[in-house]
Design brief:
This protein is α+β, with helices and mostly antiparallel strands. It is about 30% helix and about 15% strand. A hairpin with a 6-residue loop joins strand 6 and strand 7. Helix 5 packs parallel to helix 7.
């Protein structure tokens, strides 16, 4: 039967096997699927571009890179990072954090990774920038500003490497030996946090205990690639505790977010940063006495 069918012309073969798809129908369906596939890819690509500039080039090659990285993302960005056996510092910085009085915002993308709603008015963004600059000004021996190592642009805070600081006494304020920081972030740069102009959200790295607290209280979520190994790269692109802290909605929330930035300084550099803006209901660890509390 098989030999007989193979010897027949195509028209007779389709008559003998009525369920076979004619070449015209096959190519018509293939064309439709290709058009739909191109539409889906273009829609996804323009959604990628709409997120704005970030750590990945805003072109089609950058989009393809993100498509590949999406194969290795976290299943649940609200899951806390796993603790490690040899954490330094041993304990987190935040002892108590009030719950965020808003539902979680929508978040999209990988790189860039952006908050897509609940964007605060412009004056809140500017007040947040002022709070970050004040934090640096009050800890000038420990912090400096610069362009983000992760994002390649935008305001970022870094641990001030002692040889580059005007006063080498910052060595005495670190909880570890040597001129560098305690826990690596981006390319061993000591980046503590960076701020997004487009959505007023921030990315920063926290102690596992602090990351679990800010996530559970509704202030943050982990980056999709936090702690995820990527095939072909051979390493994790982001630390386990790398989180997005949602944009503050008012001045009260700016104070709380600033205390979360202080917690990032604690993890990255093992340093206690002097507070400039009080966060209501936040209890933090004191590095030189009993825990300090912002009323």
């Amino acid at each position: 039967m098989a030999a007989y069918a193979s010897e027949q012309p195509f028209s007779q073969w389709t008559t003998t096997f009525p369920l076979a798809i004619s070449p015209y129908l096959f190519y018509s369906l293939l064309t439709i699927f290709l058009i739909l596939g191109c539409f889906v890819v273009l829609r996804d690509y323009y959604a990628f571009l709409a997120l704005g500039p970030g750590g990945t080039p805003s072109n089609f090659l950058g989009y393809l890179r993100i498509c590949y990285l999406s194969l290795f993302t976290l299943k649940d960005p609200l899951s806390p990072p796993p603790p490690t056996r040899e954490e330094r510092p041993a304990d987190g910085f935040l002892l108590r954090l009030p719950p965020r009085q808003h539902p979680r915002p929508s978040v999209a993308g990988i790189a860039p990774h952006r908050q897509t709603d609940q964007k605060p008015p412009a004056h809140i963004y500017h007040l947040l920038r002022i709070a970050l600059h004040d934090l640096v000004g009050n800890n000038s021996k420990l912090l400096r500003t610069g362009n983000s190592c992760f994002e390649k642009h935008g305001l970022a805070l870094f641990l001030c490497l002692c040889p580059k600081c005007p006063d080498a006494e910052c060595h005495a304020q670190l909880l570890h030996k040597g001129p560098t920081h305690l826990n690596a972030t981006c390319s061993d740069s000591g980046e503590i946090c960076h701020l997004h102009p487009s959505d007023s959200a921030m990315h920063l790295t926290l102690h596992p205990q602090d990351a679990a607290l800010v996530i559970s209280q509704g202030w943050a979520e982990r980056h999709p690639l936090a702690g995820c190994p990527v095939l072909g790269i051979g390493k994790r692109l982001l630390p386990e505790g790398f989180v997005m802290v949602y944009a503050p909605q008012d001045e009260v929330q700016i104070g709380i977010v600033t205390d979360i930035v202080r917690a990032a300084g604690w993890w990255v550099g093992g340093v206690g940063l002097a507070s400039t803006t009080e966060g209501e209901g936040v209890l933090t660890r004191s590095t030189d006495g009993p825990p300090s509390m912002s009323a």
